[in-house]
Amino acid sequence: MSEDTIRLVTIGRIVRRRRRLLTLLVVVGALFGYGTSLLLPPRYTTSASVLLPGAWEERELRTQAEIATSSVVVDRVAAALGEPGVDGVELRERVTAEVADGNIITVSGTADTPERAQHLADLMAREFVTFAAQVLGNDTDPDAAARLEALRQAVVRTDRRIAELADAADPGRTVESVQTRTDLEKLRTALREAVDKLDQADPASDKAVKADMVVMGPAVRPAGEAPPTRTQLVAGGALLFLLVAVVGHLVAARMSRRLRTESEIAAALGSTHLGSVDVPAQRPAHRPAGRGPRALVRRLLGVDVRWDLPAPRRSGDEASRQTRYRRVCARLRDRLPASRLLVVVPEGDGIALLAAERLATEAAGDSSPEASGTGYPTLRVVQIPVSQPMLPDRDEEYGALVVLSAGHWTAGELAGLAEACVDSGHEVVGIVLAGTVRSGPARAGGPTRPAAAAELAPADDATGVPG
């Protein structure tokens, strides 16, 4: 298909011409989403917040969030729930923890009822705080704390002894006494700085602050289901089926091998394009003939009409359409004066059948011969199936004129049609393309039939034989 398959106007054409089929697919998609919602149990999610007092780095907060969903905490929660068949592995898929602003860890739980979801979130927060307090508290060694306190007491006693020695020294009478007092003051200053650094390095006080985590109230009972809800599944199913249908139409049109241009059709049939004629779009031949349940279903769904053909252009009045038919007859007369031709129409091409019948009527209606003594060729219309083309043997007809509409047949189908013409002894003398148009307003007073015939000339028109 041409590049117009990716344009919005093409999508609009699909929606407009396939609205019945798309509506049915949307309904089927909605039912599919509803059925899926019945298979999936409802889910409710709520969360509880845990405040971590003190100064925490972002890396430490992420570590605490990982601890909140660790196997130890989850196993404790599963044991506290006491639900049969619920273990830590299954419960780990229903709980999450993430870092929020302000040193807050948000712990979430999902269950099939609002009450269970609330209970699960509260248990997760409580077990997390308990386990975190144990981890931080176990890092403090009692023996190390006792040794550290003893060291402080020894430093205090040493500081006092230094002060006593400084007082006992002869203040300022000899150089040695001054030097001794100076060394003692330096030693006491160094001891005090060491004690200050030791107090700063003591993690006991900081851990005591950090270990005091607070659960900020119970979890809120959820008022609605967690996504995807039943409404979302129904809407998603309808939208999914609609998108698949539209994309399927575009892919099928892109992969279509039906010929659309005059040159491609003429090359496939091995003949010359003699002109194009118009058929009003409101005529009933738009729909292909067919009976039976399949044809009825196709007609009800609106898939019996091609969607990928462009919208019919607006035509002039009846006189302008009649002029196109007469020009094609004039070109046939110039090629084959006073001859009989077989007009071949592919079976199922209702537009081409209407055009061929009118072309035969126009040719039969010309009873006035030209100056050369010849008139339009006599045309006989026949329909042949494209799947198994078969034409009657040559009798009085000189050749075959193929009338068809663009965008309906592949190169292989048209090649088989041309071979069937050759096998039956009919030479393909030309091709006429039929297209649908929207009828324009009738012209008030046009030329009469003899006058219009007199105006005909073998010159090419805008949609006739390319020059």
TrEMBL record:
Record-annotated Polysaccharide chain length determinant N-terminal domain positions: 4-57
Membrane topology: Multi-pass membrane protein
Similarity comment: family membership: Belongs to the CpsC/CapA family.
Annotated TM spans: 21-40, 233-253
PANTHER family: CAPSULAR EXOPOLYSACCHARIDE FAMILY, TYROSINE-PROTEIN KINASE
Protein name in the entry: Wzz/FepE/Etk N-terminal domain-containing protein
Lineage: Bacteria, Bacillati, Actinomycetota, Actinomycetes, Kitasatosporales
Main localization category: membrane
